[in-house]
Amino acid sequence: MTWTDFKHQYDAQGREKADGYSASHFDGMTEDERSLARTMMLDRALNGDTIDLNGLGYIGNADTVAALCAAAVQIAGLGWRHDILRHEVLFKLTGEPHYLTDLARYLDQPDRASQENAASVLTWYVLPRDIEPFLLERICDGRHDPAILPLLQA
Length: 154
Prior knowledge:
This protein is an all-alpha fold. The chain has helices spanning about 5-10, 15-20, 30-45, 50-60, 60-70, 70-75, 80-95, 100, 105, 110-125, 130-140, 150-154. Helix 3 (about 30-45) runs antiparallel to helix 4 and helix 5 (about 60-70) runs antiparallel to helix 7 (about 80-95). The termini are far apart. It has two domains: about 1-95; about 95-154.
């Protein structure tokens, strides 16, 4: 796709915006265009746009990772949905499993919705074997009933 295609999705509203980005939105862009897209999306992501935050998982780089790490408190202040997505994007960009195990703070809360959402994120990825104790602890401790099925799937 071209810059024009990306910009169309970037400027979209409502349901069309909710369709989000795919890797194809960034294919064919020059490195300068990708850099500009990354900057635009990061700005929106840091201001609460989950569509642009998720899109960074396709084109983020080390600077994106640094910015998302530095904005941990800011994004957490936007609510658990944003912070869980931030962790997922960081995992996509780095492959570092601690971004997924950091989701324990949401798995361990009594809020059913945040438990389910955090557990759902874990089901999307092949997790390293060393995460098994982390998952087993939560499956067996009785506090994670809403998240049990997604945790078992992980």
